[in-house]
């Protein structure tokens, strides 16, 4: 029977912590406000505050032991927030790449542009579909594109990394919409010339304006730098036919289409899927790049939470040892208070308040360190197409709140058992302890 009670207690504790971590921030504020009101307005609450003030007044004498809790929890929160900020930054970059007024057409069943293949005849049929915007001359705003992967040395490193070389059509800038040239000029069709994304220029060697870089066993001249504010900043762009000739490809990977109106996507999709000469899949670029981000960000999130849990276990044990030692050192003081009429609940609440305060300070410290060191920090990682994506860590307010929730959860587990022990020790036994 006792085993079942203990198992049920642990299950309830874990369920409560899970709900705490998953709760929205506004619900947490309500719970804090209700708890604070109960502490101030009830007799036992005021007793708990009085006991907690006495305990906090002794913190300078226990600064070494108390710092174990603070530093341990700060480390957990800092690492957790940093890892989740990496996943969040990558997802934000990829989701910013797409829009609702552009679409991407791929071979049906393809997992991405590298696995897709479209013939020139199919590209011509796609451009004739309804719902596509046209320029002043009546030409459909489409860009047949060929994506290949090239190797370039990373800046400040001797190792090579994959970079995406995108061959684009003559109307690529109008079809994509967000690409702006910030240095140099656009490439000349038919020549081995490149324009590089601002992120790729920053992360890779040999792709500065005016540099000559060897791709596909041929030299290419960097004639311009562009900025799109999304994942395309990690790419090199060149003329699609020239890339196809250099890499001996006969077709294209995808077609980027600018819609006349976002509402025309359904008409475009229906027309392409109903054409028996085509075997394609159609998505808005927003949906496509959001799907591309899911796998990588899920892995980063799982790794981040796994590392956080492992570190949290260490922080919990540190908090348990510290608070057990603190309760033991204050055993006679707590027993005296109970003999004077302070109940067990105020003692439990007082010990919990002390631990939660230390946990909160540790969470704030860890979040501040993560924000100061990593917010806006630029890195690159392998994306869904096996090429590097340059992005920035994004330490959002939601992540900082998540870190504080983890900190308070660790503090609660680390304080509840010492608190219960302090309340359960018989007064007569505690008064006899040295």
From TrEMBL:
The UniProt record lists the keyword ATP-binding: no
Keywords on record: Cell membrane, Membrane, Transmembrane, Transmembrane helix
Residue ranges constituting the MacB-like periplasmic core domain according to the UniProt record: 68-272
Domain ABC3 transporter permease C-terminal: 306-426
Membrane topology category: Multi-pass membrane protein
GO terms for MF: transmembrane transporter activity
Predominant localisation class: membrane
Domain of life assignment: Bacteria
GO cellular component: plasma membrane
Transmembrane segments: 26-42, 63-86, 302-327, 339-372, 406-423
Subcellular location per the Swiss-Prot or TrEMBL entry: Cell membrane
Protein name: Uncharacterized protein
Source organism per UniProt: Metallibacterium scheffleri
Taxonomic placement: Bacteria, Pseudomonadati, Pseudomonadota, Gammaproteobacteria, Lysobacterales
């Amino acid at each position: 029977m006792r085993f079942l009670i203990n198992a049920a207690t642990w299950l309830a504790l874990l369920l409560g912590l899970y709900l705490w971590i998953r709760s929205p921030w506004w619900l947490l504020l309500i719970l804090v406000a209700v708890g604070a009101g109960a502490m101030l307005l009830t007799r036992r609450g005021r007793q708990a505050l009085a006991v907690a003030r006495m305990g906090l007044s002794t913190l300078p004498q226990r600064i070494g032991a108390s710092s174990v809790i603070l530093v341990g929890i700060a480390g957990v929160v800092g690492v957790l927030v940093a890892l989740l900020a990496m996943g969040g930054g990558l997802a934000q970059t990829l989701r910013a790449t797409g829009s609702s007024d552009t679409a991407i057409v791929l071979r049906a069943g393809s997992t991405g542009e590298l696995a897709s293949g479209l013939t020139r005849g199919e590209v011509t049929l796609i451009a004739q579909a309804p719902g596509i915007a046209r320029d002043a001359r009546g030409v459909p705003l489409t860009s047949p594109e060929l994506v290949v992967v090239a190797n370039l040395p990373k800046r400040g490193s001797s190792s090579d990394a994959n970079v995406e070389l995108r061959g684009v059509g003559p109307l690529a800038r109008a079809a994509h919409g967000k690409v702006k040239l910030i240095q140099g000029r656009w490439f000349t069709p038919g020549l081995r010339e490149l324009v590089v994304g601002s992120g790729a220029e920053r992360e890779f060697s040999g792709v500065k304006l005016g540099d000559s870089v060897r791709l596909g066993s041929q030299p290419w001249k960097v004639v311009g730098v562009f900025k799109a504010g999304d994942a395309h900043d990690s790419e090199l762009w060149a003329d699609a036919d020239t890339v196809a000739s250099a890499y001996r490809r006969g077709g294209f990977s995808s077609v980027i289409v600018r819609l006349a109106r976002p509402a025309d996507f359904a008409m475009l999709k229906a027309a392409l899927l109903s054409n028996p000469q085509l075997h394609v899949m159609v998505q808005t670029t927003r949906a496509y790049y959001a799907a591309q981000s899911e796998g990588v960000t899920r892995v980063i999130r799982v790794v981040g939470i796994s590392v956080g849990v492992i570190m949290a276990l260490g922080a919990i044990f540190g908090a348990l040892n510290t608070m057990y030692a603190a309760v033991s050192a204050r055993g006679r003081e707590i027993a005296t208070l109970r003999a004077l009429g302070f109940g067990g609940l105020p003692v439990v609440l007082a010990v919990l308040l002390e631990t939660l305060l230390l946990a909160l300070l540790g969470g704030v410290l860890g979040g501040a360190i993560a924000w100061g060191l990593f917010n806006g920090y630029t890195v690159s990682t392998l994306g869904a197409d096996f090429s590097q994506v340059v992005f920035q860590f994004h330490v959002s307010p939601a992540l900082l709140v998540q870190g504080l929730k983890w900190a308070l959860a660790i503090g609660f587990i680390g304080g509840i058992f010492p608190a219960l022990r302090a309340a359960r020790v018989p007064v007569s036994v505690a008064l006899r302890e040295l």
